[in-house]
Amino acid sequence: MCPIILTDSHIIVGNGSNQGADVAMSGDVTIDDTGTTTIKTSVALAGNPTTTTQSPGDNSTKIATTAYVDAIPSGATDLDGLSDVRYDTSSEANLIIGQKVTLFTGAQQNVFIGELAGATAANSTANTSQNTAVGYKSMQGLTSGQQNTAIGRESLYSITTGYYNSAIGVNALNANTTGIANTAIGYHALLSNVSGQNNIGIAPFALTNVTGSSNIGIGYNTGATLTTGSGNILIGDSIDVSGAGVSNQINIGGVRLDLGITVTITTAALTGGGSQGSMTFTNGILTAQTPAT
Question: Does residue 99 belong to any structural domain of this protein?
Fold first, then answer.
């Protein structure tokens, strides 16, 4: 038998006569004279080729099988199957996106969207109901509060048992814990309120230091001085009261009216006659009267 002369980068393949033949490799795989094979970068595999199924979560350039692809959701065919979503369509009807939390039995109709937004499993109670929190750590301290709305980073951050509060804006009503029926719209609006009630702050920094109740501040930085005072109405850019603890003042565009003033008028001043008694008015209302003697 004559020796086979093998051409560079060819291989010997048995032929139909059971003899070795010099053959050049072709197709998707080639070989060089060191024995190294090379697979083309674009290979069309026909039929149903199989390979090893990689482990779930393998984020690499390995070939993925259909078994690997099917395993990716890990059974998640709805929102509740995701690792950071709790969606309860039963009677409790809570939707939580951003943390996997099952609220206390009885807590219902709450919507918490954002990382660490809303009540935790440990803090919630059966009374935690009808709250909406959207934003990072918004309403994070919530325990048994009800019917609160917080939209914005750390809005209503500290709330525990308060209710009927609405906060829209970063850090709006941030310190509020037990206060009720407060409305804050704007960055840092009513930031410091803890337990005050019925306050309304609209615009960035509106009533930002207030801890009293029944104050209304509309306009940028309104009521910056006000803290413990109550019953004030402030409208306008940087409009303020005369002191931190002042109550019952109205200041609209810089025109200020002090309420809570008590005035006593003798009836003689009205009739032009002698002293015939007196009338006392508080806030424009007759509160006392002394008859003539």
Answer: no
